[in-house]
Amino acid sequence: MRAYVIGNIAMDETIIVDELPISGASILGHVGTHDLGGKGTNQAVVMARCGIPTVLVAPVGQDSRAATIRKHLQGEPLTSELISIEGISSDISLIFRLPDGENAIVTTTDSAQRLCASHVAPALAEAKPGNLAILQGNLSPEATVGILQFAKSLGMITAFNPSPQRSFFSDIWALVDIVFLNRWEAQALTGAEGEAAAKYLLQKGIQEVVLTLGSEGALLVNRRETIVVAASPGMVVDTTGAGDTFMSVALASSLKRGCQLDRKALEHASHAAAITISKVGTRSAFPTTSELDQILSDGQLDAVN
């Protein structure tokens, strides 16, 4: 089983602040971490660290930032298919991290918005029916629809993370098999909360909905049942990338066991996310390959007990 993650890639710059700036204000902050990021890349890195053969398809500019991105990717156990876009800067994320670990993120999408379905098709040439195609909300409407349609034509399973929020998401649900979203995204997309929001999405054609609820845990809703999983305890230092960790580990758990998403997949994902929020940074905060191997084999980790 192989996973193809098609999405954005960026360099993350974290600034530590006591409060978020308001319009017209200048505030002081401290330099935080400098790391590889972007939702697509985050999900690919964690998926690969779980031991799933993973291909990352992402656009970059023709600049020094792209060279830095390539250097960082060499240390990860994935195959990267970076699409070089002429005349465009590689993307960057500015992360404002508050003392309680919560954050606000501003991400440029100059490169991500220029990616086309035609760029992606050659990278999916070896995809087989049942392989996983994973997308997020950073690509253009045309690219998102085109890639999902192409993936479905190949018999791939499509998983989607509707973040950041975009107005066209309501038009693509028939092309999505699995969706992962948080409570705020669910409210914005459906006008409902909790299980009601998930069932709304099921009516639109999605097969499985995973709704993350922060410290309240997560829901898995399909046409057979609703499963509630508690959050794993852990000290919150920085929540950046926690949702990406959760999604990737849940999918990897089900893939490695040859089954659909289930309670165990969400429990594995919760344990992994607890590790991510206990560390500062993005990629550097993700569980290591050995930590994920222990989680996925139902071993115990002190960090998440």
From TrEMBL:
Residues binding ATP: N182, T212, L213, G214, S215, E216, G217, G243, D244
Provide the cofactor list for this protein: Mg(2+)
Q: Which SUPFAM superfamilies match?
A: Ribokinase-like (SSF53613)
| E.C. no | 2.7.1.15
Listed under catalytic activity are: D-ribose + ATP = D-ribose 5-phosphate + ADP + H(+)
The domain of life is Bacteria
List the PANTHER family: RIBOKINASE, SUGAR KINASE
Entry similarity comment: Belongs to the carbohydrate kinase pfkB family. Belongs to the carbohydrate kinase PfkB family. Ribokinase subfamily.
UniProt-recorded name of the protein:
Ribokinase
Annotated gene: rbsK
